[in-house]
Amino acid sequence: MKLYLAGPDVFRPDALAWADAARAQVAVAGHQALVPLDNEESTAAGIYQANLALIAEADAVLANLNPFRGLEPDSGTCFEVGYALALGKRVVAYLADARPQAEKLLAPLGPFSERDGRLYDRTGWGVEHFGLPVNLMLGASCTVVEGDLGQALAALNAA
User: Fold this and answer.
1) Which of 45, 65, 80, 84 sits most deeply, having the most CB atoms within 10 A of its CB?
2) DSSP 8-state symbol, 121
3) What is the pLDDT of residue 136?
4) Count of Cβ atoms closer than 10 Å to residue 20 Cβ
5) pLDDT under 70 in the chain at which residues?
6) Rounded to an integer, what distance in angstroms lies between the CA atom of residue 115 and that of residue 96?
7) Closest CA to 104 of 63, 130, 126, 71
8) pLDDT tens for residues 92-112?
9) Cα–Cα distance between 101 and 135 in angstroms, integer?
10) Range list of β-strands (E), the chain
């Protein structure tokens, strides 16, 4: 299968080395990696169109949903996941920490209060607590595994 690798890994200082290692890992699993760095576009519009084309070409998407520059996954990755799902692609997401989202948010946003069966952070905003490791729009639509690209590949191959 052709697998689009979504995630903020393209921003790593060692992004090219990461991409080479990820391509090799995907190849060992019997698949072909499609990496956002595979195009030569340099404008925002060009990169956007090239990434959409790679997702359309892919059979499935493996998405790194680890928090990026905050408490939530990378917004570009979330868009790519949604786009892939809209195209009917299977998405396997991976996280280093798959504890329920409310549990992970307790330290930075708590203490939580509860009323009417809902949780609220200290500023009064609601906190999801469906037992999912990410927002329900990602957690209910993707296969989510704890681990890294290797665990995502294993989950994809097991299905």
Assistant:
1) 65
2) -
3) 97
4) 14
5) none
6) 31
7) 71
8) 999 999 999 999 999 898 899
9) 7
10) 2-6, 32-34, 60-64, 90-95, 113-115, 118-120, 126-127, 143-146
pLDDT confidence of residue 110: 85
CA 121 to mean position of chain CA atoms? 25
Q: What is the model's pLDDT at position 159?
A: 80
The answer to whether the CB of 94 falls within 8 A of the CB of 63 is yes
Residues 48, 76 contacting (CB under 8 angstroms)? no
Q: In whole angstroms, how large is the CA radius of gyration of the chain?
A: 17
Kind and range of the H or E run holding 151: helix 149-158
Report the Cα 145 to chain-centroid distance in Å.
10
Q: Which helix (H) or strand (E) holds 46?
A: helix 44-57
Opening angle at CA 137, ends 135 and 140, nearest 5: 95
Omega before 111 within 30 of 0, i.e. cis? yes
**What 3-state DSSP class applies to 6?**
strand
The whole-model pTM stands at 0.95
What's CA 96's distance to the chain center, in Å? 11
